[in-house]
């Protein structure tokens, strides 16, 4: 180096030179020394020795020019001491070792940076948290996305201490790392190593020092790989067959740190995603659902749906308008899905980690036949399963077949990639249990089974016919016309939360009327259907007994709960179809037409036959609610032990329900002993009064109850003809309704006891006149005298005979008296005795007996009273043993009569 290159040469001036010559020589010597050192060093090369050689004269001159301070400093730097050997010459092995150690450390660090150690450190310490992923634009072959995130090196994540320490040291030295533009290919080894896609990533520069965070933002081009492979993976994931997935990425990444280029690093990494690591379909909430008629003159039905989709991902993109097909499952999971309609969405703008509001418009033109047809080995159709789950509050599943893009600017690759991908979408159900606002039965009619029906067969079940009226609260979202034209149901009937029986309603015609919303209430649908002969099966006999008891004798309504599976035929804008087994609930009140009838106590007359009402002699319930009345009694057949009678019965039905009874048989009892049966055939009962019901009764005490029954029957007849207060009990039995023995047994717990009706007998014309001249002096005459079997008597004193006028209760049957042993009394004193063994007839109506011989009780008070009444009348009483015969039937009874008007003649 020449003097002009010295940094201090131009700054030297004469005024700055010292006065002493020694100082000048020292400064010149110093400059010469520095110039000698600096000049050769500037022109040194790799061949220049590290230590420049100088001659001894220079050293001496320099030594002479040194100050004391300089003299003490130089030896320390040069390692010399006077004439001794320099220190550096003695320590050069240590210096050389230090240099080699530094070079070795540098090589180790660089080797680490390019070795598996730095790769292990980088893989474990590197942490990238994406903050934004946005779709910038669609390209011809893929999409351009913007990625933003935070890159941090966290050494605490490194497991090995040696790797962690060396990595921290190496990254502290390197400070930054930069990758060049890279193509990253992603493969799926388990799917034939198919290429999923390629990402073109630009150069990225980040700080790699521990704890430092670098915000990264770059654009990358993504190009999809095999469309078929991607669709296969998507379908496996959607259908739940993807338990785990292994993803392998390959790339050659050019690396450098500062000015040091580390070359291209070939990176191949595999990641396994299991269970919860796999992404799932985002959750959503339906905020609005409106079902309506199709607009703009189109056929079918439209739907407007608004939903909020949860977005937990840092994704920002713009989704173009999309059209999808809406499908439902078939009969079996393996069956092909059935297309129902289409749905469309407008353009959607997705913001990072912001819930997305989506508005969907759907259209259904017509339901396909495969949707409404019943499945094999089943009574339901795919539509039934779908609606049934939905209306029971269970999740229903619909399927979305993606995708069609109405916008022509959408690239072809997007159409090809997303076509034929079907996504199941759970559709939250709605519990429809409270939709039934009212459930009533009107004009109820019961049909009991026919006599010849076999027990246990469908023909043996009681049947009900009624007008069903159901008021349904329609959901607010149903804003389209709907008409129910048929109904079918299987209903369980409950009483006090216990199952009483089963009601099966066969398919019946129906009609419906929509009632628009009023106030806070939503729209209603009134469905009316007349069900005819729906069978009823009683499943709890004890509970049925409780219901009948509460109904007939409790005086209150009985509330029955109905839980039914209802199938309806529906006519809607999308056509006619049947929806089967819709759950429905309701309450049916069963009540008396007039509850007061259950406890009434009345007395009525029909054709002269009076029946008193009250509790029976055996404690059985009151018969007041039924008010039975018997008239027009006639005998239609006899046997040695029985009489068959025919009567017309009037009865009051206290309920609002009617019934048809093909056959009904009931026992007739006295004091718990069966004396006969009464049978009714082909009887129709309607609410209120029912008149002229033909009943046939067989009186046969001996056949039903043996000698005991015969004795009780004899006593009853004797008291009855003697006008005692007697009663009969009617009680059902297992044969009451032959096809329903259990029903007869149940009803037998409710015996009905009533007073025996008085027999109707004809009157003489004078008995209808209150001013009868034949009895002007008898104001106390018994007003019920016309109902006596013995209407009057005539006593002949001279011939000692008596003749009686008898009134037969039968209109067509002749009664025979086979023998008579009677005694007449006046004021309790005997007047005479009749003993007659010859039979005589008592024809229908009024008739006179033959003159019967009388053995007078001469001298008795009773005979004297008869003599005193000669030419007039006298009240007599009588007691007699009488043998009677009607056809082939015979019986011996006793008779006690009082207040018999007797005319006394000579």
From TrEMBL:
Q: What is this protein called?
A: Pre-rRNA processing protein
Keywords per UniProt = Membrane, Transmembrane, Transmembrane helix
Pfam families recorded: LEA-2_1, LEA-2_4, LEA-2L_5, Tag1_C
Residue ranges spanning the membrane: these are 94-114
Taxonomic source organism: Melanomma pulvis-pyrius CBS 109.77
Q: Known Gene3D superfamilies for this protein?
A: 2.60.40.1820
Tag1-like fourth Ig-like domain ranges (all copies)? 628-742
Q: Which InterPro entries match?
A: Ig_Tag1-like_4th, Ig_Tag1-like_5th, Tag1, Tag1_C
